[in-house]
Write a structure and sequence with these properties.
alpha+beta, Hypothetical Protein Tm841, Chain: A,domain 3, 2 domains, two-stranded parallel sheet, 17% strand
Length: 269
C-alpha cells in the first residue's frame, strides 16, 4: 500500500507489518514511538483486513489511552486505498491540522474511480454480479470491466465497451496481474481522458479482493497537491466538542465523537 512518492514533498509512509503475529509489547512500542515522534497517527487499512489485525489496532489504541490515533477504513479496492493513503501523505506536508488531515480521507474518496479488468467474476463478492455474468465468466476468453467505486458497474468487455468515468481531469494508475490485455490503457484511459498513465506493482491483497489473480487493477485520481489542498481547505471546518481538535465533517476521526444533538423546544399546548 506504500506507493512511491508523488513528489519531493510527499511524506514517507510508515508500514505496520505483521501486527497480528508480533508480540503485543512490540506493537505498543512501535506505535507509541510513532505518536511521540509525529504527534498524531492516521492508520489507513482495508475493510478486508483480518479481524486479528483490527483487534490488535484497537487494543494498542486502548492501552495507549490515546485519542491521537485514528483508524480509517474506507470501502475501497486495494489500489485505490493505496492511492488515497498517498494523497494523505501529500497533504501531510501542508498547513493542515491532524484532525482536518484525517477527515480529508472521507472527502477525497469521492474523487476516486477504481476498478479492474477481470478474467472471471465467478468469485467476485465485493461488487454485485448477476447470474448471467457468472455464467459467462466460465466461457474461455471472457473478460469483464468492473467499476467498484464510486458506483458499482459491470460490463462484459469488447474493444468498444468502456465504463462510466470521472467528469474531471485525472491521472490513472494501472497494476498488472496475471491477465494480458491492453483494454485499460488503449480503451479505458482515453475514454476517461486520463492526463497521465503510470504502472505500479499489483497490491498484495488485490487477487483476494477481486476473487482472481487474472486481473488488471486501475484507479483514476487527482494527482496534484494544490488541487487536493484546495478541495480540503474549501470545506467548512468545525471543532470537536469532545477533544477540541479541528475537523471537517460530522464526526471526529480521533475520538469518534459526533456533534451533540440539539434539543427541540417543546410545543405549547
Amino acid at each position: 500500500m506504500a506507493l512511491p512518492a508523488q513528489d519531493e514533498r510527499t511524506v514517507p509512509a510508515v508500514v505496520l507489518q505483521d501486527l497480528e503475529r508480533e508480540p503485543l509489547d512490540a506493537s505498543l512500542e512501535d506505535l507509541q514511538q510513532i505518536v511521540e515522534q509525529h504527534g498524531h497517527l492516521v492508520v489507513v487499512c482495508s475493510r478486508s483486513v483480518s479481524p486479528a489485525v483490527l483487534q490488535r489496532l484497537h487494543t494498542v489504541r486502548s492501552l495507549l489511552e490515546s485519542d491521537r490515533i485514528a483508524l480509517f477504513r474506507p470501502d475501497l479496492p486495494p489500489l485505490a486505498l493505496a492511492v488515497l493513503a498517498r494523497q494523505l501523505r501529500q497533504l501531510a506536508s501542508c498547513d493542515l491540522g491532524p484532525g482536518v488531515l484525517a477527515s480529508a480521507g472521507r472527502l477525497l474518496t469521492h474523487y476516486l474511480h477504481a476498478g479492474a479488468l477481470l478474467g472471471s467474476v465467478a468469485r467476485l463478492d465485493r461488487v454485485p454480479v448477476d447470474l448471467k455474468s457468472h455464467a459467462k465468466s466460465w466461457m474461455p476468453g471472457s473478460q469483464f470491466g468492473v467499476l467498484a467505486h464510486p458506483a458499482p458497474h459491470l460490463a462484459r468487455i469488447t474493444p468498444q465497451v468502456t465504463l462510466p468515468g470521472p467528469e474531471f481531469g485525472t491521472s490513472m494508475l494501472v497494476a498488472q496481474g496475471q491477465l494480458q490485455s491492453d483494454w485499460v490503457t488503449a480503451t479505458l484511459a482515453p475514454s476517461w481522458n486520463a492526463q497521465g498513465l503510470r504502472e505500479v506493482a499489483l497490491p498484495a491483497e488485490s487477487a483476494r479482493w477481486w476473487g482472481t489473480p487474472r486481473l488488471i487493477e486501475f484507479c483514476a485520481y487527482l494527482p496534484d497537491l494544490p488541487v487536493l489542498h484546495q478541495l480540503v481547505t474549501s470545506v467548512r471546518r468545525g471543532v470537536c466538542h469532545w477533544c477540541g481538535i479541528d475537523v471537517i465533517g460530522d464526526r471526529c476521526v480521533f475520538c469518534s465523537a459526533t456533534p451533540p444533538a440539539h434539543e427541540q423546544p417543546a410545543r405549547a399546548g
